[in-house]
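user: Please supply your own:

assistant:
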Amino acid sequence: MEAFPVIDMEKLTGKERSPTMEKINDACENWGFFELMNHGISHELMDTVERLTKEHYKKCMEQRFKEMVATKGLEALQSEIDDLDWESTFFLRHLPVSNISEIPDLEQDHRKAMKEFAEKLEKLAEQLLDLLCENLGLEKGYLKKAFSGSKGPTFGTKVSNYPPCPQPELIKGLRAHTDAGGIILLFQDNKVSGLQLLKEGEWIDVPPMKHAIVINIGDQLEVITNGKYKSVMHRVIAQTDGNRMSIASFYNPGSEAVIYPAPALVDKEEDQQKQVYPKFVFEDYMKLYAGLKFQAKEPRFEAMKAMESAVKLGPISTI
């Protein structure tokens, strides 16, 4: 199988722009994932975020996780568990309103670093969306506007640790799923692996790379591109040694944004394939996803299609 796609963003400013854009397009069409190098976020900031996140886990979350494992009897599993994940997490909201100041147990320097990191990731997400617009032949700004609705996009971060697991064959770090939202930007541990994606029936490792940002396509981009770009099933395999850090940031549509295939892409299709994806309000999709996250995405799309007659569409302006 071909090598996992790695994109050097510095090449977008020189004579290698065209093949680099093609590499991004191929990754979106055929992998649903790629890794970014030279993405403009300083290594110093990333190192600070990693250090503070790992310190926070040790100080504030490790003991809680051990107590949860003991309470649920997970140390002595006899059979496979399919309704629980071997992870320790907390969530940060950035847009529309930040909750970083409200998260308990975070040191002030950790809050500051996460806030700065989120601001950089937000800009990177919007830059990537415009690169996708260029590859898709959409107006610059179309995808950002499609996500914005009337109140702007939503943006948040899931901070996870995957501690050493005595029986990784019986419990996943995170069960297989596609991501519900738009575009996902992941800062993952560069020493402890575990993230895998499903490609052509095989689970493939997403290689840990120092100072890289892993990008993956969410369900909403699959809908807006009418299936040209696809969200992909992925999972985290628990490891017997090493604690894996994962900081996944989700640049998603606003809750009231109406999501539907871009007309410019539908018009390019052959008549029989003109529009295969539904129109829906993002919040409605998320309510459905909450109960069906670890199942196939296709029934979710079908369920939304059944509801779409109730959705009123407004034009997306890119001015």
About this structure: The CA atoms of residues 80 and 169 lie 7 Å apart. The mean pLDDT is 93. Helices lie at 17-30, 43-72, 108-136, 142-148, 219-224, 263-266, 282-292, 298-307.
